[in-house]
Design brief:
heterodimer; A: 264 residues; alpha/beta; Rossmann fold; eight-stranded mixed sheet; 10 helices; 36% helix; globular; B: 376 residues; TIM Barrel; nine-stranded parallel sheet; two-stranded antiparallel sheet; 15 helices
Chain lengths: 264, 376
């Protein structure tokens, strides 16, 4: 299926969704920066899986959901999305706040998903260090914290070098506001999530960048300990955006894990 | 026109070079520079100045509140109001104000304001504010809820004051099953409510609709007029006539025995226009705190930051008024004619303006300026 955009209505919220690829369904949940669309790593994963990549309510061009209060609401919403979109029992992948959402979904309904991939997820309070306060910094400063080395990013020109249009600026503002709505307090974590993660026996891959300055790598260790069937893979010379910073390595790793060739 | 005395109770007791090392003196400037002994003495001093302002005939004493900043160490408007309720006799106590969106217990706030009103013999003017972003960080309140919480907190306080308890409150942000405050304001139905504005058209419309006294802070005259138009629009929606006593304006002002002395003292106001407002946009406007309309209006209202204006320009544009009593009386009259307001709020002490200078300014205002305001 060629990558294309659809609108899927869930509970009265119109959800803008990228759909494409071939193979078993893979639901991909984006981070606080928003849905970057059909990027290089998505195209690579699309060779093996049918990707469903919705834009969270309140983000991008999806509908408003000012009634949402936290990531647990978003998690319930996406369990509903799976039903509405008819995805059956998809693999689930989430990055950053999308990773937190995926972890909550798995804890709420482990049988609703097949394999789970968490990419630099927030959601747990680090045992050492802090999750960076992303709302406290101006966006240019935040990008410095987010990316380890711009020189390694093959899509730098298309993703970051072009000045944003007014419409894109408005979307960036909207993304930031919805992210604040969902994650402000407790900041970027759910103190009760550790109690529920042991329920999730699904094979799980956790991916982290060694140089992540947004979410400490120790959180990856914490997820690995709490999830009964998880493996942690740390990418060297990589910051908070593995799908963008190392798209080829990342896509191969994730694709192989979902295909069962990397045991969890 | 009524005059109000206001001090931010600054704590400018550190070398400026130290403050300059940080992105902002708000939030980030470490509190190891807070000088406890000097602060103890300053609180006494600032209260003495307020008390003199009461005795010389100011119509009101304006009290505000900020947090995590040396620009204002009045960290409890209601605490200061409670002190002045006992130590002053005549002036209104204008709380401008309590920061509603960061308040977790509106019932307690309703009680505290009521108690200050009772102790003062019904002199409280109860201002409600949304706060600047810094207070939202300080309280760790979600900025996307700022306006909703402002309105819901306001609604609950009003209900505490006007409807018999016990009752239940279950809103979006506040939940109380047994509301029955045993402390109600002396003024009936409740103290007059005031609302400040700097940029938000929504606030102006809201205040106009409810008939509250609306006070723009330190904006150019044309912006103040535009905000007053929004206010009138709100008032018109409910068929309310807007009289000058519903409109106020805030400026910085000092007087002295000579023009030279006053102009020298007035330079202390530059600190509040620049260094105290320096910092990343996120500090003052975290995500979602302002609506798009508010953001756009703020850009228009401040085509140039006050921080980039020199002292002479700040004086020329009436952000600061400094001169002999006759001169400031003349300038106040000019402001009144420009804006048609009934209340002029004077930020009358700032930065390192010393106690004798401040006291002399208050005395001269009382003796020579306030009497001339009666006819305006």
């Amino acid at each position: 299926m060629n990558p294309h955009e659809e609108t899927i209505s869930v509970g009265g919220v119109d959800v803008h969704t990228w759909v494409g690829g071939r193979g078993a369904p893979l639901l991909v949940l984006h981070g606080a920066g928003g849905n970057r669309g059909w990027t290089r790593s998505m195209a690579a994963l699309g060779e093996r899986y049918t990707i469903w990549a919705p834009t969270h309510p309140g983000f991008g061009t999806s509908g408003d959901a000012e009634w949402m209060e936290g990531i647990d609401d978003l998690a319930r919403f996406y369990l509903w999305f799976i039903d509405v979109a008819g995805l059956g029992r998809p693999h689930l992948l989430g990055h950053s706040i999308g990773g937190w959402t995926a972890a909550e979904m798995a804890a709420m309904s482990p049988a609703a998903i097949d394999r789970l991939v968490l990419v630099a997820p927030v959601g747990l309070k680090p045992e050492v260090g802090e999750i960076l306060d992303v709302f406290y910094y101006p966006p240019p400063k935040l990008r410095e914290f987010t990316i380890h080395d711009p020189a390694t990013i093959p899509e730098w020109e298309t993703l970051f070098a072009v000045p944003p249009t007014p419409a894109e600026q408005e979307i960036a503002l909207r993304n930031r506001e919805m992210a604040a709505r969902l994650t402000w307090k407790p900041y970027m974590h759910n103190p009760r999530l550790p109690n529920f993660l042991p329920r999730v026996t699904n094979p799980t891959l956790i991916v982290w960048g060694r140089e992540d300055r947004i979410v400490p790598v120790v959180c990856g260790e914490q997820y690995r300990r709490l999830l009964p069937n998880a493996t942690l893979h740390v990418l060297e010379r990589c910051g908070h955006l593995p799908p963008i910073e190392q798209p080829d390595v990342y896509a191969r790793l994730v694709g192989d894990f979902l295909g069962g060739s990397i045991p969890a | 026109m009524k005059l109000y005395y206001f001090s931010e109770m600054p704590h400018h007791e550190f070398p400026d070079a130290e403050g300059d090392k940080y992105a902002s003196i708000r939030l980030e400037f470490p509190n190891r520079f807070f000088d406890r002994e000097k602060a103890a003495a300053n609180y006494q001093r600032y209260l003495t100045e307020y008390e003199l302002a009461d005795r010389v005939g100011f119509d009101g004493l304006m009290i505000n509140e900020h947090h995590s900043t040396p620009s204002c160490v009045n960290v409890g408007a209601n605490m200061t109001a409670a002190i002045l309720a006992r130590t002053t006799q005549r002036a209104k106590l204008l709380l401008l104000g309590n920061i509603l969106p960061i308040e977790d217990n509106p019932v307690r706030m309703a009680e505290q304001i009521a108690m200050a009103d009772l102790i003062s013999g019904g002199r409280v003017l109860s201002g409600f504010v949304r706060g600047v972003g810094v207070e939202t960080w300080w309280a760790n309140a979600n900025p996307v809820h700022n306006r909703e919480r402002f309105e819901e907190c306001h609604d609950l306080i009003l209900k505490c004051w006007t409807e018999p308890g016990p009752f239940r409150w279950e809103g979006r942000h506040y939940h109380f099953r047994h509301v029955n405050p045993w402390c109600l304001p002396l003024q009936r139905p409740h103290p007059p409510i005031w609302v400040p504005g700097t940029a938000s058209p929504e606030t102006a419309v809201w205040a106009g609709r409810l008939g509250y006294t609306y006070v723009p802070f330190l904006v150019p005259f044309d912006i103040a007029r535009e905000l007053f138009d929004f206010y009138r629009q709100g008032a018109a929606e409910v068929g309310r006539t807007v009289t000058p006593d519903k409109l106020g304006f805030l400026i910085c002002a000092v007087t002295a025995d000579t023009r030279a002395k006053a102009l020298e003292a007035g330079r202390h106001f530059v600190w509040r226009m620049g260094p105290t407002l320096r910092g990343p946009a996120e500090f003052f406007s975290p995500p979602g705190m302002r609506s798009r309309a508010g953001t756009q209006f703020a850009l228009k209202a401040r085509p140039r930051s006050l921080a980039n204006m020199g002292y002479d320009e700040l004086v020329a544009e009436h952000f600061i008024i400094a001169g002999t009593p006759d001169e400031v009386a003349d300038r106040f009259a000019h402001v009144q004619r420009q804006l048609g307001i009934g209340h002029l709020l004077l930020e009358a002490q700032e930065s390192r303006m010393d106690h004798p200078t401040t006291m002399r300014s208050i005395e001269l205002m009382g003796a020579k300026v306030i009497p001339t305001m009666a006819g305006l």
